[in-house]
Structure formats: structure tokens, C-alpha cells
Amino acid sequence: MIDPATPPAPAPGGTIKRRNPLSRLALRAFFQVHYVWCAVRRKLTDRTQRPRSLGRAMLLAPPMTRRTVWIYWDSGWDAMPPLARLSYDSWRRRNPGWEVRLLDQETALALTGIPAEVSAKRMKPSQLADLIRLELLTRFGGVWVDATTFCQVPLDQWLAPAMPFGFFAFTVTEQRTVATWFLASAQDNPIMRAWRDVAFSFWSCASSPTTYLMFYDFFSLALARFPQAGRMWRYSSHLERTQENILRYEYLTKDLAPAFAQALERGLIPLHKFSFREAIPDSFAGTPLALVLECDTREAMEQRAAMVAR
């Protein structure tokens, strides 16, 4: 339940202010130029930054106090496939001191207060989920996980030291951006608030998405437009997504299973992110997926998922 004593961060406007046609065109042109720059920047290598003194506001950034794991499936629990239910179960079993909360589209929109004129625009379900995660974490804080992620190490064992300024995301250094399938934030964190404001500014004047990677570009633009957010991110703990994401597509590759098992034993992988583009075969024994799910047949997987209670 949402604590009524905790004042939520301001909603993204409730109703979007109408812009005149010239300002709409100017803002869209600004975003288009930024997208071109981000596309070029993805080709560049990362450069080290010279350390600067940390501002007082950064040192006083509030920690994350809300112990909620947010999981979203737009059509609700009854429509969740077995793998998504097992993902939900992994976060709940390994984090007993946390509330693991599943939201569908109706409950998520009611909780976030995203204006209907924004949610009704021509966006993909994943893009609406992007706005929902930004607004949830800005308003309430907590941890957002995609329903294709699996918890391996309890959050209490690694997350707090990784977010000294109240925000954490796995980095993608070669693209100078972040992975969005796992995000952690304190309530009203400056980085998350800036990211949200840029995203809603775009959707206030656009009727459809421009590029597939625009959500990542919003993050880069937020750091550029809001200096405090940029400084906080620069000096945050940066953990690469490679180790956590290495089996994103190779989850059925048996040759990778021995090294993967050793990494699990050493506690090197706190969570797993999969993109289930290949059909799960009747038997997947000896694969990394079998190690994560702790079963090796599709029948056993479905039986375990059927036993998961919300």
C-alpha cells in the first residue's frame, strides 16, 4: 500500500498545457537534432572524466527508503506466461523483506496519474511501460524490474552500496547510456525526475515515437539539460550491464553453461535479463536457462509457474 503520509512527487502536469504550433515545431526539431547527436555519440568510445568536487546537494541526496519491487504486465496476472510468473516468484522468494508488487495497465495508470491524452497516443506498449516506470520511481521510489528478469542475489546484499546518490542503473558504456530493465531510485531523485520531465516534454508535443532508442536518448538529454542530475550520474557507482546481460539471447547454449554455473557459485551475477525470442523446447537440460529456472523441461517449468500465487 502507498503510505499516505509520504507526499508524492508532483505529477507530470495532470493536464498538458497547450502549446502554440510554432513552439511544438521548435521542440520537435530540438528532439530530432538531439537524436542525430545521440546516434553519432553511440559510435564514440567512452572518455574518462576529470573528477570535480561534489556539490552539497549531491551529498545530501536522500537514500532509497521504499522497499518495493515494481513489476508490470499490461494485461494482468491471468495473462502472464509461465516465464513471467517465475520471474515474479524469483524476486519475491529472494527478497522476503521487500514488497513485490505486480501492476497491470489499469492499476499502473491510476497509481501514476499519467494524463489520458498522453497514454492514448500512438505508442507501443513498451513505450507506455517506459513512462510508467519513470513516473512510479519518481513519485514513490523503489526498484523497477522487467518481467523477463530473474533475481539471483537478494537486493539487500548488493544494491545499497551501488547507489550512493539514490539512483542506480546498469551502464552501457559503449552507448553512453543505461539499461532500463532494472532501475532503482529514491523518491523524487533528481536523476529520475529529470529523465521523467524530458520524456513527458516530448510526449506533450509528439503524437508518435521517432526512434526505437528514444527512451535512452531521453536519459542522455536529461543529464545534459539538468546539471545536478548530470553530476550525480557521473559520480554514481557504474556497474556494466555485460555480466548481468551476457546470456540475454544465449540462454539455450549448452557450451556456456559451465562458465555460467561458476559465475553463479561465486555470486558474480545479481540478476539475469533474458529476451525470449526462441521457443522454449520440451527439454532444455544442460543450458543456462535450466540453471536459472532450476528445472530442465517445459512441462516442469509450466507446473512450477502454475503453483506461483500472486
- The total of helices stands at 14
Radius of gyration: 20 Å
H and E string: HHEHEHHHEEHEEHHHHHEHH
Number of strands: 7
Question: Fraction of residues in helices?
Answer: 40-55%
**Which shape, going by the Cα principal axes?**
globular
Mean pLDDT: 82
**Biggest sheet strand line-up:** 2-1-3-6-5
* Low-pLDDT segments: 13-17, 45-53
In percent, how much strand structure appears in the residues?
A: 5-15%
Structural class: alpha/beta
Give the end-to-end Cα distance, rounded to a whole number of Å.
15 Å
Largest sheet: 5 strands, mixed
Protein name: Capsular polysaccharide synthesis protein
GO molecular function, one term: mannosyltransferase activity
Pfam families: Caps_synth (PF05704)
GO biological process, one term: mannosyl-inositol phosphorylceramide biosynthetic process
Question: Can you describe this structure?
Answer:
- The protein has 310 residues and is an alpha/beta fold.
- It has 14 helices and 7 strands.
- The protein has helices at 21-41, 56-59, 82-94, 105-112, 116-119, 125-139, 159-162, 190-205, 214-225, 227-234, 242-245, 257-265, 288-293, 298-306; strands spanning 68-72, 99-103, 142-145, 149-151, 167-172, 177-185, 271-273.
- The strands form 2 sheets. The protein has a 5-stranded mixed β-sheet, with helices on both faces.
- A hairpin with a 4-residue loop joins strand 5 (167-172) and strand 6 (177-185).
- Helix 8 (190-205) crosses helix 9.
- The radius of gyration is 20 Å and the shape is globular.
- 35% of the residues are buried.
- Mean pLDDT is 82; it is low at 13-17 and 45-53.
